[in-house]
Amino acid sequence: MFQLNENYLKLPGSYLFSTIGKKVNAYAAAHPEKKIIRLGIGDVTQPLAPAIIEAMHKAVDEMGKAETFHGYAPDLGYEFLRNAIAENDYKSRGCEVAADEIFISDGAKCDSGNIQEIFSRDNKIAVCDPVYPVYVDSNVMAGRTGTYDKETETWSDVIYMPCVAENGFAPELPKQTPDLIYLCFPNNPTGATITKAQLQEWVDYANKVGAVIIYDAAYEAYIAEADVPHSIYECEGARTCAIELRSFSKNAGFTGVRLGFTVVPKDLKCGDVALHSLWARRHGTKYNGAPYIVQRAGEAVYSEAGKAQLKEQVAYYMKNAHYILNGLRDAGFTVSGGVNAPYIWLKAPNGMTSWEFFDYLLEKVNVVGTPGAGFGPSGETYFRLTAFGSYENTVEAVDRIRHI
Ligand SMILES: Cc1ncc(COP(=O)(O)O)c(C=O)c1O
Fold this sequence. Notes:
The protein has 404 residues and is an alpha/beta fold. 38% of the residues lie in helices and 15% in strands. It is built from 13 helices and 17 strands.
């Protein structure tokens, strides 16, 4: 008789977005006349930029002719894309990352969930609290997190690094020594960032204790301030301790197209073994590459036209972010994020919990956000609003919240 991977049974239900969906649907069914504005999910809404569409059309045509048809992609991804990434995302920022240290994938969710596979089950992970749930759940599935405590909503073998107002939503070096440290900046859900000097401390710490930092830079394109690093490889010594994850979802609207990449520097080693070779082995064995058409679309992100159009797209979302941030601050709410990130982190008013505030906003002003509790215990009294809606809806939602 077969047996299950029991670790999956330990996972608490994926209640967050399904509970939100159920509540919103029930409200909409009971009040069909109300216009509900959704600023909850982290999905983009603007169409793909013309330069990307053009590149995709061209690639589709190539696929229709024997002479230019493409089958399986090379294991690491096409060189044209890896070269464009190495040049534009790294070399231009003074970071040493070679094209053959870049692994093209279909997005950062898979990579952030899969990367733990190349590490021992005995490794101890450290995560920010609140956190993008994939980091923890993928380690639960691998049996690395111990037992779940329903009361505290924490795992016995996970090191939690609270990111709260008192520390500017930036994690502090943990007291207990971790082996794997997940960091995400600009952060989902808090929208917080850390400076290059702060990130350098993490790099120095990881090199000192022999830990690996898994650095999720999915929101890098939203960075506006000069002292916020775009890549962990801007820090000295990161090549011996850090893996970086990137996504085309939020900088180029690829949430439905699917493209991302992971950087594993060849200097990152455990004894004599380069993590690069392990990830290459995993990639080659379990993944057959992002589609040629999509990789050509990714290349167009780095064209002059693509860069200009995407700068505008990011600016569109950031205009929303600023409207939410300033509008709610003026109305007396305690808000943060929204400067280098498309997320605004809002303190639920009057001592409400995040779910109480969710219900309140849905019922009183028909605005949907995401309760912070869904991202970890330190999110219990916070609420996430996203800047990914239309400008008109964003303005209307903020004006409604202001007047409650
Ligand atoms: C922090 C973070 N990492 C990764 C992802 C997933 O990115 P992708 O669409 O490339 O899978 C998201 C998506 O919301 C995210 O917030």
